[in-house]
Design brief:
With 82 residues, the protein is an all-alpha fold. It has a domain of 28 residues. Helices cover 37% and strands 0% of the residues. The relative contact order is 0.07.
Length: 82
């Protein structure tokens, strides 16, 4: 609702400028890109927002050592370092 009393000269000047521009609808203007952080499109590519996939265990040399899938990842990393 309108405020009680007269608007400040700065606010009146803003309205005059807006009217001189043709009073465009601010909701239809392009959204300014943030200077900080990724854009929404880039953020959607972040790993945490990707659908889960079942990883393929890496091949290992010592096939008798791993007892499960996680062990294959651990052993593959150890064999790579050795």
């Amino acid at each position: 609702m309108p405020p009680k009393g007269k608007l400040s000269p700065e606010v009146i000047a803003d309205f005059e400028k807006w009217i001189a521009m043709g009073a465009p609808d601010p909701r239809k203007a392009e959204v300014a890109k943030s200077k900080y952080g990724p854009s929404v499109e880039e953020g959607r590519k972040f790993w945490a927002f990707q659908p889960m996939k079942k990883p393929v265990p890496p091949p290992v040399k010592n096939k008798s050592w791993p007892r499960g899938t996680i062990d294959q990842f651990v052993l593959a990393s150890l064999e790579k370092r050795a």
